[in-house]
Design goal:
Elements: H1 4-8, E1 18-22, E2 28-31, E3 34-37, H2 45-56, H3 58-61, E4 69-75, E5 79-88, E6 91-98, E7 149-150, H4 154-160, H5 181-188, H6 190-195, H7 238-247, E8 252-256, E9 262-265, E10 268-271, H8 278-285, H9 294-300, E11 302-309, E12 313-322, E13 325-333, H10 340-343, E14 358-363, H11 370-384, E15 388-393, E16 406-411, H12 419-426, E17 433-436, H13 442-453, E18 457-462, H14 467-476, H15 480-493, E19 494-504, E20 511-519, H16 522-529, H17 536-542, H18 551-561, H19 566-572, H20 576-584, H21 598-618
Parallel strand pairs: 4-7, 14-18, 14-19, 15-16, 15-17, 17-18
Antiparallel strand pairs: 1-2, 1-6, 2-3, 4-5, 5-6, 8-9, 8-13, 9-10, 11-12, 12-13, 19-20
Helix pairs in contact: 2-4, 12-13, 14-15, 15-16, 18-19, 18-20, 19-20
Length: 619
């Protein structure tokens, strides 16, 4: 395949208005005399994908499927170009149509010779409707789809793309079947024909031309939520933004009225594209809000729900109102259930899942991976046991597949009213393990402690900064008259507390985890029962044999292994000097030895002489 920039230059030739690229066919252009090849080499699908990525970006190129998609781009020296793409199986077709001179919109491609006999009044068949998300409006062929414009010059992107190797198949030899105008027309319209049920490698009969949607008829249905031309711009389609967030390994996507889309990558919010208008944000967010939550948004100003799409995956979503309009926050949920190893957490944490009853608490600030760790522990139980695991979440984030265990996942708001009511009813459902998304209030904690004392293993999360403060928080949630009973329950039932933090890695491209691990033991139980939780740090200093890991030790290990820089881990430590001493081996507070100045040395010699004279007089 010739370089993409060289192929695009053919569109600047007089009379050439279209460049057709199809799998297994040579590149062809359409002029007044029909289609003609511009390169004898047949194109591969990989070459087409790379060319499309160079023109519209990786995120948009990934949206191509059996449903045709279309973009409008501005190419340097060529003006407005319409790019239409469709893919069926291993075959892919891309059409680039240049607008006619003086026309306000890109010109519709002229009919190929094989299609000239088709009745002009034949209407295109209705394309199947697609609803990307629950509550989103379906897009059909009858309603013209306005496509977002791509502002980056195509030719500049094409120069950056590496030309692919020439296809091994030699079917595009000049004079062969593929080089004929009729075969060129079939290649150019292979996407439309294939979509209508005609194989892309077959010639298109005259009577089948009505099945080929063109720019002058109904536009092909897009697989993204449509946006009006007045507010369209690169990356304004929700599906594209969500796919971009996942491909860029972002943890969150923020859509805020008056701001550009923001991706949280390695802990930092990075803006992409141009600011979104309040109307655009509403158009993107309102269709995905479940019907049952519309009145909640009007009443409370904020709603939480899960968004699941076959194309983009699963997301935890919060939509709320703020000063400039609506705001949407999308937490990216991994497609695969993570493991403790992939999260960088100590493998000994898995030992706590072997208990038949008790309490396991995962703590840390919001957004520091507690839900992922919770899913990893549930997956261990799902793989290794035949227990009945009952989860109560708001909303359900990781969906656990069927393995050895029985997993019952309940969502607050749809399957149950509150965490407390779900816990109360769960005791009659014969569970072995109960997973609570978060211990938020006194009633939920009370029910959780009761469940952990009645023969169940209960796993949950809390937003507390350390293991010791987690225990204090659990106790302080209750009135003073009940706190002694809570201490007794925790002293005998607490199995594990894990407090974790995520911080940027050394290369700044990902996050690494530091974890504090406090295991249940008789020594810890005595401190809790006797109200001496202030001595827990002292227990952690000498409790390595009990499986206890201090947060400072975990930070120092990250710095010594090179996973994070020393400056980064010092920023997360309560005592940065201690971390530096552990990593570098220098004693904290030790002052370097420096020779005194010459004047000080002279003064010392004079004092020595005076002392010797006084000693002689005394003798």
């Amino acid at each position: 395949m010739k370089p993409l920039a060289e192929l695009l230059r053919h569109l600047s030739r007089p009379g050439i208005t279209e460049l057709a690229l199809a799998s297994g066919r040579p590149p062809m252009v359409r002029g007044a005399s029909g289609y003609e090849p511009v390169d004898p080499g047949a194109l591969s699908t990989d070459e087409l994908v790379k060319a499309l990525q160079a023109m519209v970006g990786m995120a948009r190129a990934s949206t191509v499927s059996e449903t045709p998609v279309q973009w409008t781009v501005n190419a340097t020296g060529l003006g407005s170009i319409t790019i239409a793409a469709v893919r069926r199986g291993e075959l892919m077709n891309v059409r680039l149509t240049r607008a006619a001179e003086g026309a306000a919109q890109p010109a519709a491609p002229a009919a190929a010779p094989a299609q000239a006999a088709a009745p002009a009044q034949a209407a295109a068949p209705a394309a199947p409707t697609r609803t990307p998300y629950a509550g989103a409006p379906a897009v059909s062929a009858q309603a013209p789809t306005r496509t977002p414009a791509v502002s980056a010059p195509v030719e500049a992107a094409a120069r950056a793309a590496q030309p692919g190797a020439v296809g091994a198949a030699a079917r595009g030899v000049p004079g062969g079947p593929a080089a004929s105008p009729q075969a060129g027309a079939a290649a150019a319209y292979g996407g439309a024909a294939s979509h209508a049920g005609v194989p892309a490698h077959a010639s298109v009969p005259a009577h089948a031309s009505a099945a080929a949607p063109s720019a002058s008829s109904a536009n092909p249905p897009a697989r993204v939520i449509p946006i009006s031309r007045g507010t369209s711009a690169p990356g304004r389609d929700l599906t594209v933004l969500l796919e971009q967030a996942r491909s860029m390994l972002a943890s969150d996507l923020h859509l805020v009225a008056g701001r550009p889309p923001l991706f949280r990558i390695a802990g930092e919010l990075l803006p992409q594209d141009t600011p979104l208008s309040p109307e655009t944000v509403e158009r993107l967010l309102l269709p995905i809000i479940p019907e049952r939550l519309r009145h909640v948004l009007e009443k409370d100003g904020s709603v939480d729900f899960a968004l699941d799409s076959e194309d983009t995956g699963r997301f935890r979503v919060n939509v709320g109102r703020q000063r400039t309009g609506l705001k949407g926050t999308f937490r990216v949920i991994a497609r695969e259930i993570p493991t403790l190893e992939s999260l960088g957490l100590p493998p000994d944490i898995a030992k706590a899942t072997h208990h038949h009853q008790g309490l396991i608490v995962l703590t840390g600030p919001s957004g520091h991976g507690k839900t992922s760790t919770l899913a990893a522990l549930v997956d261990i139980i799902n793989r290794e046991t035949t227990h009945h695991v009952l989860t109560v979440e708001d909303p359900v984030e990781y969906v656990h597949p069927r393995k050895r265990a029985l997993i019952s996942q309940r969502e607050v708001g749809t399957s149950t009213r509150t965490f407390a009511s779900a816990l109360k009813g769960s005791l009659r459902e014969d569970p072995d393990v109960i997973v609570v998304g978060e211990l938020r209030d006194t009633e939920t904690v009370r029910m959780a402690l009761a469940a952990s004392e009645t023969g169940h293993l209960l796993i949950s999360t809390m937003n507390t900064p350390s293991a010791a403060k987690t225990i204090d928080r659990l106790i302080d949630l209750f009135p003073p008259a009940d706190q002694q009973q809570v201490r007794l329950s925790l002293s005998s039932g607490l199995r594990l507390v894990v407090s974790q933090r995520l911080m940027p890695s050394t290369d700044g491209k990902s996050l690494v985890a530091a974890a504090e691990v406090l295991t249940g033991s008789m020594a810890l139980g005595n401190l809790i029962r006797d109200n001496k939780t202030y001595q827990i740090p002292s227990l952690q200093q000498r409790g390595k044999s009990l499986g206890i890991i201090r947060f400072e030790d975990s930070l120092a290990d990250l710095a010594r292994s090179g996973k994070a820089t020393l400056e980064t881990v010092k920023g997360f430590a309560e005592n940065p000097d201690e971390i530096e001493a552990m990593v570098t081996g220098k004693r904290p507070g030790a002052a370097p030895t420096v020779a005194p100045p010459a004047s000080a040395q002279e003064g010392a010699r004079m004092l020595s002489k005076v002392g010797s004279l006084l000693g002689k007089k005394g003798a």
